[in-house]
């Protein structure tokens, strides 16, 4: 295991998160693309990630390769070591781009940003009928820019966050990075907002009952083997994050899957699957949609390392 001394962590995070990223965010995105790629390549080689830097040891690269191998396996072919290395490197580059974009979220001219939202009609219809919708998402590609575009389309979007970033082991530079990201999202989503689940689960229940949208990261494992219904995901029966099922059950709200991918020349493609209620198989369908999305763009799944933490249901693999 690669161990990072604390002095190195503090130095790297200050230079990177407190100095370089904020300065680069003032430049046009097309100018910074080579630098984003270089930063991602360096982080891949050094196994630098905000979590590895906070904990003081590298593990993300190896865990990501394991997740990538599982995704590729679901396409019906084995993955070579070379391909897994390339996909893992792509993940670090994609993360680098997302982290830089988080500093320029408030500066983006969304009115002129080329984009298309497939399935927007589902959310607009639900809004007009006063029906709240739960959007499941993976930590993938340009999801935060996509949320800003959904809010600009006339939807009230609320994002569920977590206070893990306030762990005392997280260096100040990284903590500041996420604080400004939260500030930018609250500005862009207004009247929707980012709310930490540790602060108020009732906020999300009330938001859904008002007919608003609640966005939940759903590619993480369940916090307890007793809190989630098994779903078929990546060829296994897994106990995934229980937030989707809990809120859908509490509010009788349908579930849909949301993704946002940046194509060439800053063209953003968003997709919303058809919202389905629990009784219609909405929980399982959201994970089917997520799996298809990850199989199409595995190198953009910047939480692929989470696969190593997934809890297998008692029935085991399919």
Automatic annotation (TrEMBL):
GO terms for biological process: glycolipid biosynthetic process. It is found in: Cell inner membrane. Coiled coil: none annotated. The chain crosses the membrane at residues 6-27. The keyword Nucleotide-binding does not apply. Keywords: Acyltransferase, Cell inner membrane, Cell membrane, Membrane, Transferase, Transmembrane, Transmembrane helix. It comes from the Bacteria. The keyword Acyltransferase applies. GO terms for cellular component: plasma membrane. GO terms for molecular function: acyltransferase activity. This is Lauroyl/myristoyl acyltransferase.
